[in-house]
Design brief:
Elements lengths: L1 E4 L9 H5 L4 E4 L2 E4 L9 H10 L5 E4 L2
Length: about 60
C-alpha cells in the first residue's frame, strides 16, 4: 500500500507525523510521505493517522 498526502488540503497539523513517523514527515508546513510503500509494521499507525487527519488529506492507494 502507498500513502498519499494531498498537499493542497493538508493544514500542517502534524497529527500524522506524530501518529506514524515511519511513514509521514513534515515538508515545510505541510506533511509528506517519506516511504514509497508503507511497511506492514506501520499499517495500523498509518490507518490511525488517516482517520485522525482533520481535513482528510491522507489517502491510500494500492501498489
Amino acid at each position: 500500500m502507498k500513502a498519499v498526502v494531498d498537499r493542497e488540503t493538508c493544514t500542517g497539523c502534524t497529527l500524522c507525523t506524530e501518529t506514524c513517523p515511519d511513514v509521514f514527515e513534515m515538508d515545510g508546513d505541510v506533511a509528506s510521505v517519506k516511504v514509497a510503500v508503507v511497511p506492514d509494521s506501520a499499517a495500523d499507525a498509518r490507518r490511525e493517522a488517516m482517520a485522525a487527519c482533520p481535513v482528510e488529506a491522507i489517502s491510500i492507494e494500492a501498489d
